[in-house]
UniProtKB/TrEMBL annotation:
Belongs to the UPF0166 family. It comes from the Archaea. This is Uncharacterized protein.
């Protein structure tokens, strides 16, 4: 069975139905039986808007970049894409084939 890595790039303070988007994504992945997921918080980054979000003390942002990663079968992940798109909107999602060791 083919495994894939799903990566979703978000901003920390984006919300969906009164909760953070990353929390909504993690709950969907868990409730859908995805093997596991991890939330990673970045220290600096920018998205399509070009605005830099950083931890630097002089430019302290409270909207840091976060990435949700999950690995499971391609079929299981692809089945979740429509609901994930509803939750994350136009944020970037990528999927790539991975070898699970």
């Amino acid at each position: 069975m083919q495994s894939v890595l799903l990566r979703i790039y978000l901003k920390q303070n984006t919300t969906y139905q009164d909760k953070s988007v990353h929390e909504a994504v993690l709950e969907l992945l868990r409730d859908s039986g995805v093997n596991g997921a991890t939330l990673l918080r970045g220290i600096e980054g920018y998205g399509a808007d070009g605005k830099i979000h950083t931890l630097k003390i002089l430019n302290l942002s409270n909207d840091l970049p976060v990435v949700v990663e999950a690995v499971d079968s391609e079929g299981k992940i692809r089945a979740l894409v429509p609901k994930l798109k509803e939750i994350v909107g136009k944020e970037l999602m990528t999927m790539q084939t991975v070898e699970v060791l």
